[in-house]
User: Which sequence fits this backbone?
């Protein structure tokens, strides 16, 4: 049908006009504070689960059901509500507050000084909200978008229609809520979705949409392995280890520090990372159980959970510390470190990190099929690993002497960097004593010392 | 008649929008945070002058536009001319004079920021920008960078109040830009070169710091803080950081 020009224009103009109207409507709704209810989310099965049980739909369904039962969904995460045993394992170091059990997403694991630091930080972060509470202006008290649970509780308090005699109690309660706020697991999951998901993925599999652009790749939490901790024997990280990564970032990778968020929020995020890690490891173990026995026992899931949970509990006594003061970096120590660094019979760092510490040692590369050098070792996640170029002064796990000491002592979990602290020689003697280890530390740190740098024009 | 009515409405709407935006901005405090550096007020003065000049000419040209629409309705045919020496000289010389005037007026402030002795001083902090975070490297108690007692602080730049602080700015990857709104300080950071910036903060407090050059997908998270403290507090902080640097890990035991 041939339309007259004016009519044709009108028809063509319609889609443009409706898009414009749509945008205006969206803006108006946004301005009114309208927020759509988020669609329900679910934890997807691990790729290993899908591969290993490709022809076992019943087993996959059984595992998914068990995991859903125990850990909930991304929007409603929870720890399994198992009878006694789990509560016995999850002994809170602060028995004064059993109701704040970590298993319910509480702050029960934190010591009093840690709680005091969080309260200090909360007072700073919520200063304007606290001011409003002080003036009984409850209507305007808002926490933040990433903590819906806190917001809900504040609104509940604000909407309570009680008499004047309760005003003081209400003020006190609101104050307490803000000051001693510790995010629920749900709040932390919300913040995780806003800040971490785009790299680390919904399940913590390191497979978020941004992950494909990154090298090094974001961590897959589901193996329970975390590269940089202060612990030996590849122990599961403590809360402090995860928190350290959030506070300091992992220099040289896309993992930046998250000090934009309050101390409470960072603690909550490390709780949620642990949650995802435990959930993911239980899933992997259930797949293994099924492959082994051809079926899953009714209590397999809770057994595996207790086992994994126990591993996370064992962490604190694995902390690597040094008895005495850190020996200062003298010329002699650095020279001694240089010798050890290159000595094939002891530390032998040069084999991977190269003679000059540039991360180009012969053992770290192999010849690819096309004659090009490719990294010789993958890490536990299958990503090719190159040794650190020590001259850059960029150390993922921190650049303090004790950080480097721990790295050499305990190695890097899931990577080829060995734990020299535990290594023994042929005579069953420690390969490197603590004194020599400090020499190595100071030598490694000296590689990036270039006193002239910032003064250069 | 309709065109005139529309023009009149436009004029009214313009005036209403102008007044409304000022009222709303004032009510919400939508303006610069107060300047707290020695040169902050000079920069604000320059901004105010330029804003005034621009506002004057904006109102003038809009008034001429609306006046023309009102005076010459749709029923009159437009007449085109070519070449009017007086008019052309006027609209070239007037803005030209103003621009040259502004250029001279800002010279002393520019010199203070970029070419004064202060900018050449010894840096207190080495600022490392990378995708997507700030790390501040202090020379430690020996005052020399690149030695064993250097320490790094992510996120927060701590500086003493009422002292000239020189920053050495360096990038690990792409072009970043350091911006501290309260200091009126903004300086691009180029990979491969060490740039300088300096300020003298006159008020203790904690201020926003951000990257203001789009530097990649995580640009939005490249935020930080500047904490301005007294000299005593600053020295104590350095001592504490040095102690943390030489930690043997035992304080981490519970």
Assistant:
């Amino acid at each position: 049908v041939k339309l007259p020009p004016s009519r044709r224009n009108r028809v063509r103009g319609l889609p443009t006009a409706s898009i414009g109207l749509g945008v205006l409507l969206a803006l108006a709704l946004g301005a009114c504070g309208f927020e759509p209810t988020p669609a329900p989310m679910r934890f997807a099965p691990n790729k290993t689960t899908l591969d290993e049980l490709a022809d076992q739909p019943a087993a996959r369904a059984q595992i998914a059901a068990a995991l859903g039962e125990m850990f909930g969904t991304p929007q409603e995460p929870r720890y399994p509500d198992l009878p006694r045993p789990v509560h016995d394992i999850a002994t809170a170091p602060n028995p004064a507050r059993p109701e704040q059990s970590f298993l319910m997403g509480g702050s029960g694991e934190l010591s009093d000084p840690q709680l005091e630091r969080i309260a200090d930080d909360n007072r700073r972060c919520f200063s304007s909200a606290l001011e409003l509470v002080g003036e009984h202006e409850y209507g305007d008290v808002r926490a933040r978008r990433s903590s819906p649970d806190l917001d809900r509780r504040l609104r509940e308090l604000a909407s309570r229609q009680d008499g004047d005699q309760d005003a003081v109690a209400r003020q006190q309660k609101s104050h307490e809520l803000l000051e001693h706020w510790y995010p629920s697991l749900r709040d932390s999951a919300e913040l995780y979705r806003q800040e971490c998901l785009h790299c680390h993925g919904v399940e913590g599999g390191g497979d978020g949409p941004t992950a494909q652009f990154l090298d090094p790749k974001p961590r897959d939490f589901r193996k329970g392995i975390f590269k940089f901790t202060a612990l030996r024997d590849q122990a599961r990280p403590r809360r402090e280890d995860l928190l350290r990564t959030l506070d300091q970032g992992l220099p040289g990778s896309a993992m930046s520090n998250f000090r934009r968020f309050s101390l409470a929020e960072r603690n909550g995020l490390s709780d949620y990372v642990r949650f995802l890690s435990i959930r993911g490891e239980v899933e992997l173990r259930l797949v293994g159980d099924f492959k082994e026995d051809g079926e899953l026992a009714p209590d397999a899931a809770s057994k595996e959970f207790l086992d994994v949970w126990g591993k996370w509990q064992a962490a604190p006594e694995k902390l690597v510390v040094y008895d005495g003061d850190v020996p200062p970096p003298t010329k002699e120590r650095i020279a001694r470190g240089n010798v050890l660094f290159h000595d094939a019979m002891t530390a032998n760092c040069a084999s991977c990190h190269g003679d000059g510490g540039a991360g180009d040692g012969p053992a770290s590369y192999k010849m690819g099929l096309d004659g090009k050098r490719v990294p010789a070792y993958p890490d536990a996640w299958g990503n090719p690993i190159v040794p650190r170029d020590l001259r850059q002064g960029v150390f993922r796990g921190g650049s303090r002497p004790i950080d480097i000491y721990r790295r050499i002592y305990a190695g890097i979990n899931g990577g080829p960097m060995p734990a020299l602290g535990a290594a023994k020689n042929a005579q069953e003697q420690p390969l490197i004593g603590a004194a020599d280890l400090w020499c190595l530390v100071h030598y490694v740190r000296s590689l990036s010392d270039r006193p002239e740098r910032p003064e250069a024009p | 008649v309709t065109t005139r009515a529309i023009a009149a409405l436009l004029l009214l709407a313009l005036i209403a929008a102008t007044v409304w935006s000022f009222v709303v901005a004032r009510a919400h405090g939508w303006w610069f945070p107060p300047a707290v550096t020695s040169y902050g007020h000079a920069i604000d003065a320059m901004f105010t002058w330029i804003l005034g000049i621009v506002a004057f000419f904006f109102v003038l040209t809009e008034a001429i536009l609306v006046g023309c629409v009102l005076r010459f309705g749709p029923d009159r045919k437009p007449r085109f001319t070519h070449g009017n020496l007086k008019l052309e000289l006027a609209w070239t010389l007037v803005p030209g004079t103003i621009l040259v005037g502004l250029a001279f007026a800002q010279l002393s402030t520019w010199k203070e920021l970029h070419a004064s002795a202060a900018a050449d001083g010894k840096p207190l902090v080495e600022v490392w920008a990378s995708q997507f975070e700030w790390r501040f490297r202090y020379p430690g108690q020996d005052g020399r960078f690149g030695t064993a007692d250097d320490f790094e602080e992510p996120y927060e730049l701590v500086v003493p109040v009422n002292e000239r602080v020189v920053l050495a700015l360096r990038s690990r990857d792409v072009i970043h830009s350091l911006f501290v709104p309260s200091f009126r300080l903004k300086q691009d950071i180029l990979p491969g070169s060490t740039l300088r910036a300096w300020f003298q903060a006159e008020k203790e407090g904690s201020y926003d710091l951000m990257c203001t050059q789009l530097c990649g997908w995580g640009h939005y998270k490249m935020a930080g803080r500047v904490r301005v403290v007294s000299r005593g507090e600053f020295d104590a902080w350095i001592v504490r950081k040095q102690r943390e640097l030489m930690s043997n890990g035992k304080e981490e035991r519970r």
Remarks:
- The first strand of chain A starts at residue 365 and ends at 367.
- Chain A is about 45% helix and 0% strand.
- Chain A touches chain B through 46 residues (CB under 8 Å).
